[in-house]
Amino acid sequence: MPESIQLVECPRDAWQGRSKLVPTALKTNYLQQLLAVGFHTLDAGSFVSPKAVPQLADTAEVLCGLDLRDTKTRLLVILANERGAEQVANHPYISYWGYPLSVSETFQQRNTRQSVSEGIELAKRLRHLADRSNAELVVYVSMGFGNPYGESYHPDQVLQLAGQLQKMNVPVVSLADTVGLATPDQIRSLVTQCRAEFPSIQWGVHLHGKPGGQPEKIAAAYEAGCRRFDGAIGGYGGCPFAEDELVGNINTQSLIDYLSEIYPDLSIDREQFNTCVQLAQTIFT
After folding, report:
1. Cβ(182)–Cβ(220) below 8 Å
2. pLDDT at residue 53, rounded to an integer
3. Residue 135 and residue 95 in contact, taking contact as beta carbons nearer than 8 Å
4. pLDDT digits (tens, 9 = 90+) for 4-36
5. In contact, 249 and 236? CB cutoff 8 Å
6. How far is Cα 285 from Cα 275, in angstroms, rounded to an integer?
7. Do 105 and 115 contact (CB within 8 A), yes or no?
8. Bridge partners, residue 142, by sequence
9. Average pLDDT, integer, range 187-211
10. Which domains are assigned to the chain?
């Protein structure tokens, strides 16, 4: 029997870079619909500076508006500092704290206003704070497959960072192709190396890219042993701090199409999913 799949839907990533604010009630309604689909995890918001990301300033209000009684889907939020940890600790039903830690000094400064070394020290503190809140820390290795800034990059940088995360007992690490640079061969190779050298970590992928070539990237990660996949309905999204042009997420439909061939009983309610696709079109277009 194939290993279980963890599908992570990322509406937070889908709307974080949009200049036009999505109304709070519409966000809450969309998340509530997504909770009925059957995703393993919902990346539902972010406790970061409202000046930096105005779109997510209402995360606390959105989360408080959700009815979590009839869902098995777990919630994840992104944070970038200890102030964010204090905020998320007020929401004990949040299962995962997501923290972006880059191998790129340029991106770490742009995204969190920290150096990589400062980010590593913060990850240590967040790991302990998450434990106290009965939550798991998910570290996203941003620019995990290269960067657009002309900085040197080598997969060994990712492996070195992974070694430090393993020493911290970080349970989940997601390799993020922040600007869609990765090829299927790169994805296959890096996921294989990470899983072989650091088997105590659960490895995921958070891939970005243009619509063409997405199935090949998904297949590469799966064939290398990845069983945790992030996506966003419609492929919307992208990091507003990476480049001027947003590079969208892997489309959740592409993930479902590929994984359904392997998992005929993939626990996704297709009717609810289609409802969310239609709702997303009203939000993002």
Report:
1. no
2. 86
3. yes
4. 899 999 999 888 878 888 999 999 999 999 999
5. yes
6. 16
7. yes
8. 102
9. 95
10. 6-284 (3.20.20.70)
Element spanning 47, H or E:
strand 41-47
* Residue 191: closest CA among 144, 136, 143: 144
Distance of CA 148 to the CA centre of its chain: 20
Residue-wise pLDDT tens digits, 109-165: 988 889 999 999 999 999 999 999 999 999 999 999 999 888 999 999 999 999 999
Task: Report the alpha-carbon distance of residue 95 to residue 77 in Å, rounded.
Answer: 9
List beta partners, residue 7: 229
Contacts of 69 (CB under 8 A, 6+ apart): none
Beta-carbon contacts of residue 68 (< 8 Å; ≥ 6 apart): 35, 75, 93
Q: Can you tell me the mean pLDDT for 262-276?
A: 93
Based on the number of CB atoms within 10 Å of its own CB, is 119 exposed (0-12), middle (13-18) or buried (19 or more)?
buried
CA pair distance 221, 8, nearest whole angstrom: 15
Spatial separation of the C-alpha atoms in residues 120 and 125, rounded to whole Å: 9
Q: Is residue 62 a contact partner of residue 27, using CB atoms and an 8 Å limit? A: yes
Q: What amino acid is encoded at 151 in this protein?
A: E
Task: Please give the structure tokens belonging to residue 265.
Answer: 């009983």
Measured distance between the N- and C-terminal CA atoms of the chain, rounded to whole angstroms: 40
pTM (whole model) above 0.90: yes
Q: What DSSP string describes 10-45?
A: -HHHHHTT-SSPPPHHHHHHHHHHHTTTT-SEEEEE
| Nearest alpha carbon to residue 140 among 178, 194, 167 | 178
H/E element, 191 = helix 184-197
